[in-house]
Amino acid sequence: MFSSIHMRSLLHHPNIVDLIGYSIADKDQLFLVYNFMPLGSLKDYLHDLPRNKKPLDWNTRMKIAAGAAKGIKYLHDKSTPPVILGNIKPSNILLCAEYLPKLSDFLGFKERIPEHDESSHTRYFSRQCHRHAPEFVGDCKLTQQSDIYSFSLVLLELVSGRLAEIEPSLIGWAKHILAGGKEFTTVADPLLEGLYPEQGLYQVLYLAAQCLQRKDVSRPRIGYVAKVLSNLAAEIYDPNAVQINRAGSLAVGNIEKEILIEQWRHVWSLV
To answer: Is the peptide bond before 81 cis (omega within 30 degrees of 0)?
Structure first.
């Protein structure tokens, strides 16, 4: 336990909650001390939004997505040895000032992977199988690519405002819309009130589909995911400069649009 705490204390990144210290109440209770996050968690804004608070706008959602992806990239690619989170969900993405996201809650049931051993994985029991990749449901195997799968659910929650745990499943609901011939704008969170770039929404949904592929080898690595989301976050959307979105108004020609839509529906059919 204490070796894990020491290893956790060595992880430092702008998008990861810092471990300040710990306290032992008795032999069965260990309290970890982290930075105070004044804005709560992403879950508070997507699924438990108080009436006196405004919903997250598009730019803030992309900022949170890009920041969380950078945190995962650090744990997967920069930490020595790498770290598998295994519990990526909105309640574990905390928000500090200016909605800077910080990953939390990955100590105690996620294991660090031996260096240079991408085949290694960790096994543990969880009741939250709806957030885990297909390979986890089969034999409780967690890998970096299963983190990618779980993170893609957060992306869907960010753009749709729907909770992954509800029935029907978020993936099934999105797939019914996106692979079934309906306009992709149907997925957008009603709280956005149409104020989002349709090209950006399309790209997020396409990225989510890539990350939700059933075979882990078909999913992109976190470096690619972080790059796409960073680019989207850098494209600041100005709702005062454009009209409210209307279905099917991608900023491309009709032929290009048809090709894009066909590619998008194909990748969603593989989810």
So the answer is: yes
pTM: 0.83
> Residue-wise pLDDT tens for the chain (271 aa)?
556 676 777 788 999 998 887 777 666 677 777 788 889 999 999 988 888 889 999 999 999 999 999 999 999 999 888 888 888 999 999 999 999 999 987 643 344 334 444 444 444 434 444 577 877 766 667 889 999 999 999 999 999 999 887 756 888 888 888 877 678 889 999 999 999 998 899 899 999 999 999 888 999 999 999 999 999 999 999 988 765 544 444 554 555 656 667 777 778 887 7
Beta bridge partners of 242: none
Strands (DSSP E) found in the chain: 19-26, 29-34, 93-95, 101-103, 122-123, 141-142
